[in-house]
Amino acid sequence: MIIAILTNAYPYLPGEQFIEDEIGYWAARDDISVTLLPALATGTPRPVPARIAVDTGMASTVGVGRLWHALAALRSAIFWRELGYLRRSRKLQPRTIGRALLHTSKALEQSAQLQRHARIHGRIDVAYCYWNDTQACAAVLAREAGAVRKVVSRTHGYDLYEARRDSGYMPLKRQFIAAFDAVFALSREAGTYLQRTYGAPAENIRISPLGVPLAKALNRPSPTGCLHVVSVASCMRVKRLDRMIGALRLFAGRHRDIRMTWTHVGGGPLLEETRALAKRELAGLGNLEFTFTGELRHSAVAALYRDAPVDMLVNTSESEGVPVSIMEAMSAGVPVVAPDVGGVSSLVSARCGVLLRPQPDAEEIADAMARVAFADGRAHLRANARQMIEAGFDAARNYRDFVAGIVALGAADDSPARRRQPAAPAIQHAAGR
């Protein structure tokens, strides 16, 4: 069986570190052939298991090829259908029109690239799209052209929640969401959102949480009189790190007898701006030190929980899927403070930390930090955090079952009558060359 895994960049940097936990379960199957097809391929790739191939044939092109597909997109019924949606939803503006054209062009280009891969290497039994975005749409187009038998997709956060996108617009989603053989959501809340927002058919949605390896040793708390707070997030507006900094200022100011350390893990476009804000807002607090590590490899984050005492992970984001960063901390027995957004509530509760309101201010976050820091049952919080991961987010179980499910779907007979494809005429027209 031929499996194609479509990624944004993996195994190339940056991002998609959590695929590193999943890929070994694909490599463990000797009854399938697996190829990674990243859309971006620059720099030195991360190592992958020996049985996993990497093909950069779907990496972006420039020049005449990009121009040709842009012109094809202008003639495509997919693009004009998208403009109709933008008009009806009152989101029609130059920026959204440009994005609709760009994403239609990319879908056509990536479909052609995937078809070329299939002509060289054989028809793809399952195209597994790690993100439910343009590549996933391209895989559907390639299936209509006969290059692919089945198309499945995960969906996380950025590729799910419209509020996280510019102008609240998710290009092409509504046209293609019913055409997948299966969409794997991380939580029931995410599955409900797919149905309510985009009209995804319930029978095509499967709930499949990500997972993390269980930490071999549990993290230890700081000595009495010390407190180590960790945050793991890309420095972006959606992560609300200004509230994190405000909460730290309040907490350290109220508890000057506590020697505090804050470690922030993550890069992103606002890294320097966030670092400057922290220097300005936290200046004069002699009991608080902080470090911005920048982007860290997956293994380095695990080493942080293994080697240093960590008393809590604090998340302040306004939008999440089911964060791997929270799973990693809880796997090591670290309590979590986080807002009730996305699928966070499937991980965080009063048993293992504090689940905040979706829109907490700095005061509420600081109060929650104090509840974790000074709780009589801190040892129970840490034990419960670990137990939550063991019960529902163990990579060994979740990824093994996920891979087995996709292989079984690929082995099943084709059933085109089961698919609901309201955009089929547009897809067929656009796929024609």
What does this 3D model show about the protein?
It is built from 15 helices and 13 strands. The chain has helices at residues 19-27, 64-75, 77-88, 94-121, 134-144, 173-176, 188-198, 241-254, 271-281, 298-307, 324-331, 362-373, 378-392, 395-411, 424-431; strands at 2-7, 33-38, 52-54, 124-129, 148-155, 182-185, 205-207, 226-232, 259-265, 288-294, 312-314, 336-339, 353-356. The protein is globular and about 65 Å long. It has two domains: 2-211 and 396-431, 3-Layer(aba) Sandwich (Rossmann fold), CATH 3.40.50.2000; 226-392, 3-Layer(aba) Sandwich (Rossmann fold), CATH 3.40.50.2000. The protein has a seven-stranded parallel sheet, with helices on both faces. Strands 10-9-8-11-12-13 form a six-stranded parallel sheet, sandwiched between helices. The two termini are 28 Å apart. It has 433 residues and is an alpha/beta fold. It is 42% helix and 16% strand. Residues 422-433 have a biased composition (Low complexity). This is Polysaccharide biosynthesis protein. Pfam families: Glyco_trans_1_4, Glyco_transf_4. Residues 414-433 are annotated as: Disordered. GO terms for molecular function: glycosyltransferase activity.
